Amino acid sequence: MEFNLQKTDGNARAGILKLAHGEVQTPIFMPVGTQASIKALDFNDLLELDTPIILANTYHLYLRPNDITIATLGGLHEFTKFPRNFLTDSGGFQAFSLNNNVEHREDGIVFKSHIDGSRHFFSPQKVLDIQYNLNSDIMMILDDLVGLPASKERIISSINRTTKWAQEAITYHNFKKQITADSNKILTNNIFAIVQGGIDKEFREASARDLTSLGDFDGYAIGGLAVGELNTQMYATLDFTTPLLPKEKPRYLMGVGTPQDIVEAIARGVDMFDCVMPTRNARNGTIFTHSGKFAIKSPRFKLDTQPLDSKCHCYTCSKHSRAYLHHLFRAGEISYFRLASIHNLAYYLSLVRDAREAILKGEFMQFYKNFYAQIENIS
């Protein structure tokens, strides 16, 4: 993997991430494809949106259809026929979200399957083996994610466990790279560490220091945010966390978020984002636009012949009116899910691309001000 930092504007960064399945211009938003599929869309839709990278879920794909099946069928790219990049998470978030079905141990995490109740153990090595089988371009290490608020003792144990697992993961990954090189092959899977520490500066510094001292990671994620803290607390945490990470490596804020969260995080030096929000909210009737968000079910859209967003050039906005999307949603038509999801993802992708263009021009602060001026003026 190669990451070229092209331009900075304040703390905001524009770069190019070179992976095995194509370049990724940053800042970038990664649509979430939990089951190796973006809900309601196919990969032609993703290619039309010029999506360079998507996220898939290690835990869910391990359970169904299972990683060995996917490896047998050629890995995620051959299995799905999506020719661009995949990032796969580690299962740490599932340990958080499925808390009642999880047992944390010093050597890993025991899951109780939400599908059939069977028990499975994820160690740092096991998580990487699953992702090698998936053959994702970026692999996340196993981490111990803590919801907020949390006790000091719980956060300290999270940091210590995450660092221990990171050491085991990078040692194992370097071993895999060596044996692959010995067989005259190249391992194209890249590995990111995950900084924990809640919203406490001291804890974040300790986690970042410990992880960066291990060396060899291809990038660094900021985990453990958007899990119960206030937005202002998240932004303050980013303020003191991003400077702790190597400038020459990509920075990934996991599971975030709203358009405002993304703009604020870009302003603080974050390069990569993922979130289910654009597609999940689309299916629930919320439309994101350059002027803010609205609920398409509102009666005021019944006779509205405007596109969802006059500044958007996606398929949905170029072909259909608010009135039609309002009708489809009210009628429960499946086609609504696809059309709304296309638009919301187009908006998110255009948001990070516009931010990138502004950074390259040295105009990010004007972009930042315009963003808030537009959403504050929505009627």
From TrEMBL:
<feature type="binding site">
    <location>
        <position position="314"/>
    </location>
    <ligand>
        <name>Zn(2+)</name>
    </ligand>
</feature>
<dbReference type="Pfam" id="PF01702">
    <property type="entry name" value="TGT"/>
</dbReference>
<keyword id="KW-0862">Zinc</keyword>
<feature type="binding site">
    <location>
        <position position="196"/>
    </location>
    <ligand>
        <name>substrate</name>
    </ligand>
</feature>
<feature type="active site" description="Nucleophile">
    <location>
        <position position="274"/>
    </location>
</feature>
<dbReference type="GO" id="GO:0016757">
    <property type="term" value="F:glycosyltransferase activity"/>
</dbReference>
<keyword id="KW-0819">tRNA processing</keyword>
<dbReference type="InterPro" id="IPR036511">
    <property type="entry name" value="TGT-like_sf"/>
</dbReference>
<comment type="subunit">
    <text>Homodimer. Within each dimer, one monomer is responsible for RNA recognition and catalysis, while the other monomer binds to the replacement base PreQ1.</text>
</comment>
<feature type="binding site">
    <location>
        <position position="317"/>
    </location>
    <ligand>
        <name>Zn(2+)</name>
    </ligand>
</feature>
<dbReference type="InterPro" id="IPR004803">
    <property type="entry name" value="TGT"/>
</dbReference>
<dbReference type="InterPro" id="IPR002616">
    <property type="entry name" value="tRNA_ribo_trans-like"/>
</dbReference>
<feature type="binding site">
    <location>
        <position position="343"/>
    </location>
    <ligand>
        <name>Zn(2+)</name>
    </ligand>
</feature>
<comment type="function">
    <text>Catalyzes the base-exchange of a guanine (G) residue with the queuine precursor 7-aminomethyl-7-deazaguanine (PreQ1) at position 34 (anticodon wobble position) in tRNAs with GU(N) anticodons (tRNA-Asp, -Asn, -His and -Tyr). Catalysis occurs through a double-displacement mechanism. The nucleophile active site attacks the C1' of nucleotide 34 to detach the guanine base from the RNA, forming a covalent enzyme-RNA intermediate. The proton acceptor active site deprotonates the incoming PreQ1, allowing a nucleophilic attack on the C1' of the ribose to form the product.</text>
</comment>
<keyword id="KW-0671">Queuosine biosynthesis</keyword>
<feature type="binding site">
    <location>
        <position position="224"/>
    </location>
    <ligand>
        <name>substrate</name>
    </ligand>
</feature>
<keyword id="KW-0328">Glycosyltransferase</keyword>
<comment type="similarity">
    <text>Belongs to the queuine tRNA-ribosyltransferase family.</text>
</comment>
<feature type="binding site">
    <location>
        <position position="143"/>
    </location>
    <ligand>
        <name>substrate</name>
    </ligand>
</feature>
<protein>
    <recommendedName>
        <fullName>Queuine tRNA-ribosyltransferase</fullName>
        <ecNumber>2.4.2.29</ecNumber>
    </recommendedName>
</protein>
<feature type="binding site">
    <location>
        <begin position="89"/>
        <end position="93"/>
    </location>
    <ligand>
        <name>substrate</name>
    </ligand>
</feature>
<feature type="binding site">
    <location>
        <position position="312"/>
    </location>
    <ligand>
        <name>Zn(2+)</name>
    </ligand>
</feature>
<feature type="active site" description="Proton acceptor">
    <location>
        <position position="89"/>
    </location>
</feature>
<feature type="region of interest" description="RNA binding">
    <location>
        <begin position="255"/>
        <end position="261"/>
    </location>
</feature>
<feature type="region of interest" description="RNA binding; important for wobble base 34 recognition">
    <location>
        <begin position="279"/>
        <end position="283"/>
    </location>
</feature>
<keyword id="KW-0479">Metal-binding</keyword>
<keyword id="KW-0808">Transferase</keyword>
<feature type="domain" description="tRNA-guanine(15) transglycosylase-like">
    <location>
        <begin position="11"/>
        <end position="376"/>
    </location>
</feature>
<comment type="pathway">
    <text>tRNA modification; tRNA-queuosine biosynthesis.</text>
</comment>
